[in-house]
Amino acid sequence: MKIAVLSGDGIGPEVTGEALRVLDALGLPGLTVFEGDVGGIAYKRHGQPLPPETLTMAREADAVLFGAVGDPACDGLERALRPEQAILGLRKELELFANLRPAKVFPGLEHLSPLKGELASSLDLLIVRELTGDVYFGEKGERTASDGSREGWDMMRYSETEVARIARVAFRAARASASDGQGRVTNVDKANVLETSQVWRDTVREAAGSHPDIALDHMYVDNAAMQIISNPARFSVILTGNLFGDILSDLASAAVGSIGLLASASVGERRTAHGVFGLYEPIHGSAPDIAGTGKANPMASILSAAMMLRHSFALDDAAARIENAVARALADGARGRDLGGDAGTRAIGDAVIERL
Amino acid sequence: MKIAVLSGDGIGPEVTGEALRVLDALGLPGLTVFEGDVGGIAYKRHGQPLPPETLTMAREADAVLFGAVGDPACDGLERALRPEQAILGLRKELELFANLRPAKVFPGLEHLSPLKGELASSLDLLIVRELTGDVYFGEKGERTASDGSREGWDMMRYSETEVARIARVAFRAARASASDGQGRVTNVDKANVLETSQVWRDTVREAAGSHPDIALDHMYVDNAAMQIISNPARFSVILTGNLFGDILSDLASAAVGSIGLLASASVGERRTAHGVFGLYEPIHGSAPDIAGTGKANPMASILSAAMMLRHSFALDDAAARIENAVARALADGARGRDLGGDAGTRAIGDAVIERL
Ligand SMILES: CC(C)[C@H](C(=O)O)[C@@H](O)C(=O)O
Ligand SMILES: CC(C)[C@H](C(=O)O)[C@@H](O)C(=O)O
Known about the structure:
Distance between the termini of chain A: 21 Å
Largest sheet of chain A: 10 strands, mixed
Number of helices of chain A: 12
Order of helices and strands of chain A: EHEHHEHEHEEEHEHEHEHEEHHH
Number of domains of chain A: 2
Number of strands of chain A: 12
Strand order of the largest sheet of chain A: 2-1-3-12-11-4-5-10-8-9
Helix content of chain A: 40-55%
Oligomer: homodimer
Bound molecules: 3-isopropylmalic acid
CATH superfamily of the largest domain in chain A: Isopropylmalate Dehydrogenase
Radius of gyration of chain A: 20 Å
CATH architecture of the largest domain in chain A: 3-Layer(aba) Sandwich
């Protein structure tokens, strides 16, 4: 079981370090860890945010544990050299086309949600975001507009093949989460304006044919943004494209109110000897302002490691041990500054390890 | 002073009817009203959602008072014939490139916001959305993907010229709203991924040079979606493109919590003898489920008429009379079902008229 650890910039190394300590404490046999440079630190050391050696290391691993990328010192660089390109490159090169982002308020932390009590506690959804297509990876460039001024352009696009495979992920996820009722998928697009969405919607509808047990409905993205905050209980699994998914998954996370606890998985279809290959990362950024101060909350990284054990190594029990330990640590007051507490990075790591 | 009234589908005619009664009650000299078909009803009568006669009527007026479009009976039609195309066509043909969407919680209606008390009352922002460019109006179509499957595509694009003019609108709006402090504009884009956003951001930055009194900052759209709900006080004027503006303005409206009260203005640069030509509409849709039942809340349409008097006819006093009458009617309990009350369409119109 090989893990490539790409901890990146800012607080990335600190929080990933705690996740590794937690994995270590579990004493899983056969787990080996390789560390690679990614993001701003990789640019400084190798002149590019995603060096070939890092990509190779990731490719040869069974899973990637990712920290965060982003470094204000790189702001002036041309886009291709900026830290964020590393995560886009990893998704594309490793064909991690499905991003899974659960958004659920932790028991006892309802007060951190910006939403009113009942709305906050009814929020429990999973966003399945396509990650390797859309306007992110279409052709793009600059040209001269008809009036002679400068014009920027980006091609938005989706093919049936790309949509069908992400739709399958969403339907499977809906089935898995429907243990106590009917699985539901809400497809989110902008089919009243976009041709891309028209193909998207037709393909999702067709894929639904092979999943008669799942209830499917469709919603425009503007309406979905409204309902995520005004009627979150309406959603179970949201299936959407790369651009809308970027916005809606961050919106759903903000609605939870504790970004420092949220993890994500990016997976494709490639299977390793142990499970599905995937990349796991906290949804928070590199937070350069608090990097190195020992104040960052590592729980999202620790929970990302748990997601990794479950999805890429089929180690459900070990994953549950981590998740329960985090929940108990939270209940016992091991809360970072972001949660209104004052526990530091290391102390939170210790608190989780003690409760494994 | 010519007004083209395009009341459209569903509850559009009912709510617009009350707005017209309110205008009538003001007894403004020289106001003439023309009515035209738009949306699903226009399709039924003329075979297209935006017939040429309607467009001509709108063009020859000094302002357009718009109701709502959308009719489930048209769902099966090809996109070009669907009711929503009428509003897109009007924006484009009339060069209404700037959509102004104020989002502020009405005093006494904080409980309707999905946001917690303090967040709800600190929400007071204006979204300035570009309306005639972006992926909405770029080329689009279907083609065969490299693997032979069907592919939908839409071109996202913005030229400097298009960005500069919407930026001017935002800076002017920030100046106008800064009576008691420094004007602030937050530019929202996705410059870490999109070339379109890169041109957009550069142009906004340049336009800021002529507005040294306004503080400008930049934010990615995913972050903006988060902060609108978690830290709304951070925003004053948000400047953004057509697609992101569609999502964020609906999100901000949902955060207010009383969609039935929110109005919008779409303006360009064309001046008439009376002021700036514009189109005014409630942000709510055609609500076919309650059409004809007399239950729709007409306040957003009435407030749209007030916006029209202010922006297109420089009748600030008359606009304020309407707005104050609405506020008093609300305070006196004239609340529609959407606000937790039981007042009907006509009764709400009466309540406003009595308080003019
Ligand atoms: C850093 C950025 C390019 C990225 C994205 O837009 O996908 C981020 O926002 C995310 O969601 O992981
Ligand atoms: C009806 C639709 C095409 C339209 C849009 O996306 O612009 C609507 O959502 C709006 O915001 O006015």
